[in-house]
Design goal:
The protein has 457 residues and is α/β, with parallel strands linked by helices. It is built from 15 helices and 13 strands. The protein has a single domain (6-180, 190-304, 368-452), classed as Alpha-Beta Barrel (TIM Barrel). The strands form three sheets. An eight-stranded parallel beta barrel has the order 1-2-3-4-9-10-11-13, surrounded by seven helices. The chain has a two-stranded antiparallel sheet with strand order 5-6. A two-stranded antiparallel ribbon has the order 7-8. Helix 6 runs parallel beside helix 7 and helix 7 crosses helix 8. The radius of gyration is 22 Å and the shape is globular. The protein starts with 5 loop residues before the first strand and ends in a 21-residue tail after the last helix. The model has no long low-confidence stretch (mean pLDDT 95). Bound molecules: flavin mononucleotide.
Length: 457
Protein backbone atom coordinates (compact mmCIF):
# COMPACT_ATOMS: atom_id res chain seq x y z
CA UNK A 1 0.00 0.00 0.00
CA UNK A 2 1.23 3.46 -0.83
CA UNK A 3 2.05 5.61 2.15
CA UNK A 4 0.10 8.69 3.10
CA UNK A 5 1.81 11.97 2.27
CA UNK A 6 2.27 14.33 5.21
CA UNK A 7 2.04 18.09 4.83
CA UNK A 8 3.56 20.98 6.74
CA UNK A 9 3.04 24.63 5.90
CA UNK A 10 6.25 26.63 5.89
CA UNK A 11 5.94 30.24 7.08
CA UNK A 12 7.76 32.84 9.11
CA UNK A 13 6.65 35.84 11.15
CA UNK A 14 7.66 38.17 8.32
CA UNK A 15 6.64 39.32 4.84
CA UNK A 16 6.89 36.99 1.85
CA UNK A 17 9.21 34.47 3.54
CA UNK A 18 10.58 32.33 0.68
CA UNK A 19 9.08 34.37 -2.16
CA UNK A 20 10.80 37.76 -2.09
CA UNK A 21 8.98 40.51 -3.94
CA UNK A 22 5.62 38.72 -3.97
CA UNK A 23 4.32 41.05 -1.27
CA UNK A 24 3.67 43.41 -4.20
CA UNK A 25 1.16 40.98 -5.70
CA UNK A 26 -2.34 42.48 -5.41
CA UNK A 27 -3.77 39.40 -3.68
CA UNK A 28 -0.90 38.82 -1.22
CA UNK A 29 -1.71 39.48 2.44
CA UNK A 30 1.68 38.62 3.92
CA UNK A 31 2.49 42.24 4.70
CA UNK A 32 -0.35 41.94 7.29
CA UNK A 33 1.85 39.59 9.36
CA UNK A 34 1.63 42.03 12.29
CA UNK A 35 -2.14 41.40 12.58
CA UNK A 36 -3.23 38.54 14.81
CA UNK A 37 -6.23 37.88 12.55
CA UNK A 38 -3.80 37.05 9.70
CA UNK A 39 -2.35 34.17 11.74
CA UNK A 40 -5.69 32.96 13.07
CA UNK A 41 -7.09 32.82 9.53
CA UNK A 42 -4.04 30.88 8.38
CA UNK A 43 -4.30 28.38 11.26
CA UNK A 44 -7.97 27.74 10.41
CA UNK A 45 -7.18 27.20 6.71
CA UNK A 46 -4.42 24.70 7.54
CA UNK A 47 -6.55 22.75 9.98
CA UNK A 48 -9.35 22.62 7.42
CA UNK A 49 -6.79 20.92 5.14
CA UNK A 50 -5.63 18.57 7.96
CA UNK A 51 -2.04 19.81 7.70
CA UNK A 52 0.16 18.13 10.31
CA UNK A 53 1.69 21.39 11.26
CA UNK A 54 2.78 24.90 10.56
CA UNK A 55 6.54 25.19 10.60
CA UNK A 56 7.66 28.68 11.60
CA UNK A 57 11.17 29.59 10.51
CA UNK A 58 13.22 32.21 12.31
CA UNK A 59 16.54 34.01 12.16
CA UNK A 60 18.05 36.27 14.79
CA UNK A 61 19.95 38.46 12.35
CA UNK A 62 19.60 40.29 9.09
CA UNK A 63 20.65 39.17 5.58
CA UNK A 64 23.55 41.59 5.12
CA UNK A 65 26.03 39.48 3.12
CA UNK A 66 24.67 40.75 -0.24
CA UNK A 67 26.53 43.98 -1.00
CA UNK A 68 27.89 43.97 2.56
CA UNK A 69 24.82 45.74 3.94
CA UNK A 70 21.21 45.08 4.97
CA UNK A 71 19.87 47.56 2.36
CA UNK A 72 18.75 45.03 -0.27
CA UNK A 73 17.07 42.84 2.34
CA UNK A 74 15.31 45.85 3.88
CA UNK A 75 14.19 47.24 0.53
CA UNK A 76 12.76 43.92 -0.67
CA UNK A 77 11.55 42.61 2.73
CA UNK A 78 13.83 39.55 2.47
CA UNK A 79 13.02 38.06 5.90
CA UNK A 80 13.28 41.45 7.54
CA UNK A 81 11.35 42.89 9.36
CA UNK A 82 10.92 39.62 11.29
CA UNK A 83 8.93 39.14 14.49
CA UNK A 84 9.16 36.40 17.10
CA UNK A 85 7.53 33.10 16.06
CA UNK A 86 6.73 31.71 19.52
CA UNK A 87 4.32 34.45 20.46
CA UNK A 88 1.97 33.43 17.65
CA UNK A 89 1.47 29.92 18.92
CA UNK A 90 -1.05 30.27 21.80
CA UNK A 91 -3.32 32.42 19.64
CA UNK A 92 -3.25 29.94 16.75
CA UNK A 93 -3.74 27.05 19.18
CA UNK A 94 -6.86 28.71 20.57
CA UNK A 95 -8.66 28.47 17.20
CA UNK A 96 -7.51 24.92 16.32
CA UNK A 97 -7.54 21.48 17.93
CA UNK A 98 -5.06 19.43 15.95
CA UNK A 99 -2.61 21.61 14.05
CA UNK A 100 0.99 21.19 15.24
CA UNK A 101 3.41 24.09 15.70
CA UNK A 102 7.06 23.63 14.74
CA UNK A 103 8.89 26.63 16.08
CA UNK A 104 12.41 27.46 15.05
CA UNK A 105 14.71 28.62 17.81
CA UNK A 106 18.41 29.26 17.38
CA UNK A 107 19.94 27.63 20.43
CA UNK A 108 23.23 29.48 19.96
CA UNK A 109 21.65 32.66 21.29
CA UNK A 110 19.14 31.19 23.77
CA UNK A 111 20.24 30.16 27.27
CA UNK A 112 18.87 26.64 27.80
CA UNK A 113 17.10 27.23 31.12
CA UNK A 114 14.56 29.94 30.14
CA UNK A 115 14.22 28.38 26.68
CA UNK A 116 13.22 25.00 28.14
CA UNK A 117 10.59 26.72 30.26
CA UNK A 118 9.13 28.62 27.30
CA UNK A 119 8.75 25.39 25.35
CA UNK A 120 7.16 23.62 28.32
CA UNK A 121 4.73 26.52 28.67
CA UNK A 122 3.75 26.22 25.02
CA UNK A 123 3.41 22.46 25.31
CA UNK A 124 0.96 22.97 28.19
CA UNK A 125 -1.04 25.69 26.45
CA UNK A 126 -1.33 23.69 23.20
CA UNK A 127 -2.01 20.37 24.97
CA UNK A 128 1.08 18.80 23.47
CA UNK A 129 1.14 20.21 19.95
CA UNK A 130 4.57 21.83 20.01
CA UNK A 131 7.70 20.98 18.08
CA UNK A 132 11.11 22.66 18.06
CA UNK A 133 13.20 23.10 14.93
CA UNK A 134 16.71 22.94 16.40
CA UNK A 135 18.95 25.37 14.54
CA UNK A 136 22.38 26.80 15.27
CA UNK A 137 22.23 29.81 12.89
CA UNK A 138 24.15 30.71 9.75
CA UNK A 139 24.30 34.51 9.87
CA UNK A 140 27.28 36.46 11.22
CA UNK A 141 24.85 39.34 11.76
CA UNK A 142 23.09 37.25 14.42
CA UNK A 143 26.41 36.61 16.15
CA UNK A 144 27.22 40.32 16.13
CA UNK A 145 23.77 41.10 17.54
CA UNK A 146 24.65 38.76 20.41
CA UNK A 147 27.90 40.63 21.08
CA UNK A 148 30.26 38.29 19.24
CA UNK A 149 32.60 39.11 16.40
CA UNK A 150 31.40 36.32 14.12
CA UNK A 151 29.60 33.03 14.36
CA UNK A 152 31.19 29.89 15.76
CA UNK A 153 32.70 27.59 13.08
CA UNK A 154 30.19 25.34 11.30
CA UNK A 155 30.93 21.95 12.85
CA UNK A 156 31.68 23.41 16.30
CA UNK A 157 28.13 24.81 16.37
CA UNK A 158 26.80 21.26 16.28
CA UNK A 159 29.14 20.20 19.13
CA UNK A 160 27.73 23.01 21.27
CA UNK A 161 24.24 21.94 20.24
CA UNK A 162 24.89 18.37 21.45
CA UNK A 163 25.69 19.68 24.92
CA UNK A 164 22.67 22.01 24.85
CA UNK A 165 20.41 19.07 24.00
CA UNK A 166 21.65 17.06 26.96
CA UNK A 167 20.77 19.96 29.24
CA UNK A 168 17.28 20.56 27.92
CA UNK A 169 16.54 16.81 27.92
CA UNK A 170 17.47 16.72 31.57
CA UNK A 171 15.26 19.72 32.38
CA UNK A 172 12.31 18.28 30.47
CA UNK A 173 12.67 14.59 31.33
CA UNK A 174 14.63 14.22 34.56
CA UNK A 175 13.80 17.14 36.82
CA UNK A 176 10.19 16.24 37.68
CA UNK A 177 8.71 12.77 38.17
CA UNK A 178 5.38 12.07 36.50
CA UNK A 179 3.61 11.98 39.85
CA UNK A 180 5.45 14.93 41.43
CA UNK A 181 2.39 17.19 41.22
CA UNK A 182 -0.21 15.98 43.72
CA UNK A 183 -2.66 18.90 43.98
CA UNK A 184 -3.68 17.42 47.33
CA UNK A 185 -5.90 20.04 49.00
CA UNK A 186 -6.45 18.03 52.19
CA UNK A 187 -2.74 17.47 52.81
CA UNK A 188 -1.82 20.97 51.66
CA UNK A 189 0.72 19.59 49.18
CA UNK A 190 0.74 20.86 45.64
CA UNK A 191 4.07 19.31 44.62
CA UNK A 192 5.88 16.53 46.45
CA UNK A 193 9.42 17.94 46.87
CA UNK A 194 10.94 14.45 47.03
CA UNK A 195 9.86 13.91 43.41
CA UNK A 196 11.56 16.98 41.99
CA UNK A 197 15.33 17.07 41.49
CA UNK A 198 17.87 19.69 40.56
CA UNK A 199 19.81 19.31 37.34
CA UNK A 200 23.50 19.93 37.89
CA UNK A 201 25.67 20.31 34.85
CA UNK A 202 29.19 21.63 34.43
CA UNK A 203 30.19 21.08 30.81
CA UNK A 204 32.42 22.63 28.17
CA UNK A 205 29.93 25.30 27.12
CA UNK A 206 27.23 25.41 29.79
CA UNK A 207 26.87 25.31 33.57
CA UNK A 208 23.59 24.96 35.35
CA UNK A 209 22.26 24.07 38.81
CA UNK A 210 18.48 24.32 38.93
CA UNK A 211 15.17 22.52 38.97
CA UNK A 212 13.02 22.97 35.88
CA UNK A 213 10.37 25.58 36.67
CA UNK A 214 7.52 24.01 34.70
CA UNK A 215 5.57 20.98 35.83
CA UNK A 216 5.59 18.07 33.33
CA UNK A 217 3.83 18.95 30.08
CA UNK A 218 2.01 16.46 27.81
CA UNK A 219 5.01 15.68 25.60
CA UNK A 220 7.80 16.79 28.00
CA UNK A 221 10.36 17.07 25.21
CA UNK A 222 8.67 18.81 22.25
CA UNK A 223 8.77 16.99 18.90
CA UNK A 224 12.31 17.58 17.64
CA UNK A 225 12.87 18.87 14.12
CA UNK A 226 16.19 19.59 12.47
CA UNK A 227 17.14 21.02 9.09
CA UNK A 228 20.91 20.72 8.52
CA UNK A 229 22.05 18.26 5.84
CA UNK A 230 25.85 18.62 5.92
CA UNK A 231 27.72 15.51 7.17
CA UNK A 232 27.94 16.98 10.70
CA UNK A 233 24.32 18.18 10.47
CA UNK A 234 23.20 14.69 9.50
CA UNK A 235 24.97 13.00 12.36
CA UNK A 236 23.32 15.49 14.75
CA UNK A 237 19.95 14.67 13.15
CA UNK A 238 20.65 10.94 13.39
CA UNK A 239 21.06 11.31 17.12
CA UNK A 240 18.35 13.82 18.03
CA UNK A 241 15.81 14.52 15.27
CA UNK A 242 12.36 12.99 14.99
CA UNK A 243 11.63 14.97 11.82
CA UNK A 244 14.12 16.45 9.35
CA UNK A 245 13.50 19.20 6.83
CA UNK A 246 15.49 18.99 3.64
CA UNK A 247 15.56 21.32 0.68
CA UNK A 248 16.95 21.03 -2.81
CA UNK A 249 15.86 21.79 -6.34
CA UNK A 250 15.28 18.25 -7.68
CA UNK A 251 14.66 14.62 -6.77
CA UNK A 252 18.24 13.86 -7.89
CA UNK A 253 19.49 16.11 -5.07
CA UNK A 254 16.95 15.07 -2.43
CA UNK A 255 16.93 11.26 -2.78
CA UNK A 256 20.57 10.66 -1.68
CA UNK A 257 20.12 13.18 1.14
CA UNK A 258 17.11 11.29 2.48
CA UNK A 259 19.03 8.02 2.30
CA UNK A 260 21.98 9.60 4.13
CA UNK A 261 19.71 10.87 6.93
CA UNK A 262 18.18 7.43 7.40
CA UNK A 263 21.70 5.98 7.46
CA UNK A 264 22.68 8.52 10.13
CA UNK A 265 19.78 7.32 12.29
CA UNK A 266 20.93 3.73 11.84
CA UNK A 267 24.48 4.70 12.84
CA UNK A 268 23.04 5.98 16.14
CA UNK A 269 21.24 2.70 16.80
CA UNK A 270 17.86 4.05 15.74
CA UNK A 271 15.51 2.62 13.10
CA UNK A 272 15.98 4.33 9.70
CA UNK A 273 12.29 5.24 9.65
CA UNK A 274 12.44 6.68 13.18
CA UNK A 275 12.97 9.99 11.40
CA UNK A 276 10.26 11.51 9.24
CA UNK A 277 11.75 13.53 6.39
CA UNK A 278 9.95 16.49 4.84
CA UNK A 279 11.23 18.16 1.68
CA UNK A 280 10.55 21.74 0.73
CA UNK A 281 8.31 22.37 -2.25
CA UNK A 282 6.09 25.05 -3.76
CA UNK A 283 2.80 24.21 -5.43
CA UNK A 284 0.95 26.51 -7.77
CA UNK A 285 -2.51 25.11 -8.31
CA UNK A 286 -5.42 26.08 -10.54
CA UNK A 287 -8.70 24.46 -11.55
CA UNK A 288 -6.93 23.33 -14.75
CA UNK A 289 -3.31 22.94 -15.87
CA UNK A 290 -3.67 26.03 -18.07
CA UNK A 291 -5.09 28.15 -15.23
CA UNK A 292 -2.20 27.10 -12.99
CA UNK A 293 0.39 27.91 -15.68
CA UNK A 294 -1.13 31.36 -16.11
CA UNK A 295 -1.05 31.91 -12.36
CA UNK A 296 2.62 30.94 -12.17
CA UNK A 297 3.48 33.39 -14.95
CA UNK A 298 1.62 36.11 -13.11
CA UNK A 299 3.54 35.29 -9.91
CA UNK A 300 6.91 35.36 -11.68
CA UNK A 301 6.32 38.94 -12.75
CA UNK A 302 6.44 39.97 -9.07
CA UNK A 303 9.68 38.22 -8.05
CA UNK A 304 12.42 40.45 -6.65
CA UNK A 305 15.71 39.10 -8.00
CA UNK A 306 17.61 41.35 -5.66
CA UNK A 307 15.67 39.96 -2.68
CA UNK A 308 16.28 36.39 -3.87
CA UNK A 309 20.03 36.98 -4.11
CA UNK A 310 20.05 38.69 -0.70
CA UNK A 311 18.54 35.51 0.77
CA UNK A 312 20.94 33.25 -1.14
CA UNK A 313 23.92 35.32 0.00
CA UNK A 314 22.83 34.95 3.62
CA UNK A 315 22.25 31.20 3.33
CA UNK A 316 25.61 30.54 1.64
CA UNK A 317 27.80 33.30 3.14
CA UNK A 318 28.78 34.34 -0.43
CA UNK A 319 28.13 37.87 -1.69
CA UNK A 320 26.24 37.32 -4.97
CA UNK A 321 26.28 41.07 -5.72
CA UNK A 322 29.95 40.61 -6.72
CA UNK A 323 29.17 38.09 -9.47
CA UNK A 324 27.98 38.88 -13.02
CA UNK A 325 24.43 37.61 -13.59
CA UNK A 326 25.58 35.15 -16.25
CA UNK A 327 28.48 33.78 -14.24
CA UNK A 328 28.34 30.13 -13.31
CA UNK A 329 28.12 29.59 -9.55
CA UNK A 330 31.19 27.77 -8.24
CA UNK A 331 31.45 25.93 -4.97
CA UNK A 332 33.16 27.62 -2.03
CA UNK A 333 33.22 26.46 1.58
CA UNK A 334 31.99 28.96 4.18
CA UNK A 335 30.96 29.00 7.81
CA UNK A 336 27.31 29.71 6.86
CA UNK A 337 25.03 26.86 5.75
CA UNK A 338 26.87 24.24 3.70
CA UNK A 339 23.87 22.62 2.07
CA UNK A 340 22.60 25.83 0.46
CA UNK A 341 25.83 26.13 -1.53
CA UNK A 342 25.84 22.42 -2.43
CA UNK A 343 22.32 22.74 -3.86
CA UNK A 344 23.46 25.05 -6.65
CA UNK A 345 26.91 23.59 -7.27
CA UNK A 346 27.99 20.02 -6.62
CA UNK A 347 24.80 18.30 -5.36
CA UNK A 348 23.78 17.49 -8.95
CA UNK A 349 26.76 17.21 -11.37
CA UNK A 350 24.34 17.36 -14.32
CA UNK A 351 23.02 20.79 -13.44
CA UNK A 352 24.95 24.03 -13.82
CA UNK A 353 23.47 27.24 -12.34
CA UNK A 354 24.13 30.83 -13.35
CA UNK A 355 23.50 33.63 -10.87
CA UNK A 356 20.50 34.76 -12.96
CA UNK A 357 18.95 31.29 -12.80
CA UNK A 358 19.47 31.14 -9.05
CA UNK A 359 17.68 34.49 -8.63
CA UNK A 360 14.72 33.44 -10.78
CA UNK A 361 14.39 30.04 -9.10
CA UNK A 362 14.77 31.21 -5.49
CA UNK A 363 12.23 34.01 -6.04
CA UNK A 364 9.36 31.50 -6.05
CA UNK A 365 9.49 29.40 -2.91
CA UNK A 366 13.22 29.38 -2.25
CA UNK A 367 15.43 26.53 -3.44
CA UNK A 368 12.73 23.81 -3.52
CA UNK A 369 11.08 22.68 -6.76
CA UNK A 370 7.98 24.47 -8.08
CA UNK A 371 5.18 22.26 -9.35
CA UNK A 372 2.20 23.78 -11.08
CA UNK A 373 -0.96 22.32 -12.56
CA UNK A 374 -4.50 21.26 -11.91
CA UNK A 375 -5.24 18.82 -9.06
CA UNK A 376 -4.59 15.67 -11.13
CA UNK A 377 -1.23 16.75 -12.47
CA UNK A 378 0.02 18.02 -9.11
CA UNK A 379 -1.17 14.89 -7.28
CA UNK A 380 0.62 12.72 -9.89
CA UNK A 381 3.81 14.76 -9.47
CA UNK A 382 3.65 14.56 -5.68
CA UNK A 383 3.14 10.80 -5.66
CA UNK A 384 6.07 10.44 -8.02
CA UNK A 385 8.27 12.76 -5.92
CA UNK A 386 7.52 10.99 -2.65
CA UNK A 387 8.03 7.54 -4.13
CA UNK A 388 11.30 8.53 -5.88
CA UNK A 389 12.91 10.44 -3.02
CA UNK A 390 11.69 8.38 -0.04
CA UNK A 391 10.47 11.44 1.90
CA UNK A 392 7.53 11.12 4.28
CA UNK A 393 6.03 14.45 3.41
CA UNK A 394 6.37 17.97 2.14
CA UNK A 395 7.05 21.31 3.65
CA UNK A 396 5.03 23.65 1.47
CA UNK A 397 6.14 27.22 0.85
CA UNK A 398 3.68 29.89 -0.15
CA UNK A 399 3.97 32.33 -3.02
CA UNK A 400 0.87 34.43 -2.36
CA UNK A 401 -0.61 34.27 1.11
CA UNK A 402 -3.11 32.76 1.86
CA UNK A 403 -3.99 31.91 -1.75
CA UNK A 404 -1.22 29.30 -2.01
CA UNK A 405 -2.44 27.33 1.02
CA UNK A 406 -6.14 27.80 0.25
CA UNK A 407 -5.67 26.32 -3.21
CA UNK A 408 -3.85 23.32 -1.75
CA UNK A 409 -6.66 22.76 0.73
CA UNK A 410 -9.50 23.22 -1.75
CA UNK A 411 -8.05 21.61 -4.89
CA UNK A 412 -5.28 19.17 -3.97
CA UNK A 413 -6.28 17.66 -0.62
CA UNK A 414 -9.58 16.20 -1.93
CA UNK A 415 -7.66 14.58 -4.82
CA UNK A 416 -4.93 13.12 -2.61
CA UNK A 417 -7.53 11.87 -0.12
CA UNK A 418 -9.46 10.18 -2.94
CA UNK A 419 -6.25 8.42 -3.97
CA UNK A 420 -5.70 7.15 -0.42
CA UNK A 421 -2.50 9.22 -0.16
CA UNK A 422 -3.79 11.65 2.49
CA UNK A 423 -5.35 11.11 5.89
CA UNK A 424 -9.14 11.34 5.88
CA UNK A 425 -9.11 12.69 9.43
CA UNK A 426 -6.66 13.73 12.12
CA UNK A 427 -5.48 11.15 14.64
CA UNK A 428 -6.13 11.96 18.29
CA UNK A 429 -3.44 12.85 20.78
CA UNK A 430 -0.34 15.00 20.93
CA UNK A 431 1.70 16.07 17.92
CA UNK A 432 4.10 13.17 18.54
CA UNK A 433 1.20 10.70 18.65
CA UNK A 434 -0.30 12.13 15.48
CA UNK A 435 3.05 11.72 13.70
CA UNK A 436 4.25 8.45 15.17
CA UNK A 437 1.15 6.65 16.45
CA UNK A 438 -1.03 6.13 19.49
CA UNK A 439 0.87 5.60 22.74
CA UNK A 440 3.96 7.45 21.48
CA UNK A 441 3.43 10.64 23.51
CA UNK A 442 6.93 10.44 25.02
CA UNK A 443 10.28 9.82 23.41
CA UNK A 444 11.39 6.22 23.89
CA UNK A 445 14.80 4.48 23.93
CA UNK A 446 17.11 4.41 22.05
CA UNK A 447 16.45 8.14 21.64
CA UNK A 448 18.88 9.90 24.02
CA UNK A 449 16.10 11.94 25.71
CA UNK A 450 14.69 8.73 27.16
CA UNK A 451 17.97 7.86 28.86
CA UNK A 452 17.58 10.84 31.23
CA UNK A 453 14.20 9.73 32.52
CA UNK A 454 14.61 8.38 36.06
CA UNK A 455 12.96 5.06 36.90
CA UNK A 456 9.94 6.03 38.94
CA UNK A 457 8.78 4.16 42.01
C1 LIG B 1 13.66 23.67 5.11
C2 LIG B 1 14.72 24.33 5.92
C3 LIG B 1 14.35 25.29 6.85
C4 LIG B 1 15.30 25.93 7.63
N1 LIG B 1 14.88 26.86 8.53
C5 LIG B 1 15.79 27.53 9.26
C6 LIG B 1 15.41 28.57 10.15
O1 LIG B 1 14.24 28.87 10.29
N2 LIG B 1 16.37 29.22 10.84
C7 LIG B 1 17.69 28.90 10.72
O2 LIG B 1 18.51 29.54 11.38
N3 LIG B 1 18.09 27.91 9.89
C8 LIG B 1 17.16 27.25 9.15
N4 LIG B 1 17.57 26.30 8.28
C9 LIG B 1 19.01 26.05 8.13
C10 LIG B 1 19.50 24.84 8.84
O3 LIG B 1 19.07 24.80 10.18
C11 LIG B 1 21.00 24.78 8.82
O4 LIG B 1 21.56 25.87 9.53
C12 LIG B 1 21.51 24.89 7.44
O5 LIG B 1 20.89 23.94 6.61
C13 LIG B 1 23.00 24.70 7.46
O6 LIG B 1 23.34 23.49 8.05
P1 LIG B 1 24.10 22.40 7.22
O7 LIG B 1 25.34 23.09 6.73
O8 LIG B 1 24.37 21.31 8.24
O9 LIG B 1 23.17 21.97 6.14
C14 LIG B 1 16.66 25.63 7.49
C15 LIG B 1 17.04 24.67 6.54
C16 LIG B 1 16.09 24.03 5.77
C17 LIG B 1 16.52 23.00 4.78
Amino acid sequence: MSREIRLNAFAMNCVGHQSPGLWRHPRDRSSHYTDLSYWLDLARILERGRFDGIFLADVLGVYDVFGGSPDAALRTAAQVPANDPMLLVPAMASVTQHLGFGITSTLTYEPPFPFARRLSTLDHLTKGRVGWNIVTGYLDSAARAAGRERQVAHDDRYDIADEYMELVYRLWEESWDDNAVRRDRAAGVFTDPSRVRAIRHAGTHYRLDAIHLSEPSPQRTPVLYQAGSSPRGRSFAGRHAECVFVSGPSAAVIAPRVAAIREAARAQGRAPDAIKVFSMMTLVLGETDAAAAARLEEYRAHVSHEGALALMSGWTGVDFSQLPLDAQVRHVESEAGRTAMDNITRADPNRVWTVREVAAHVGIGGIGPVISGGPQRVADALEDWVDTTGVDGLNLCYVVMPESFESVVDLLIPELTRRGRYKPRYAEGTLREKLFGAGKARLAAPHPAASFRPSQG
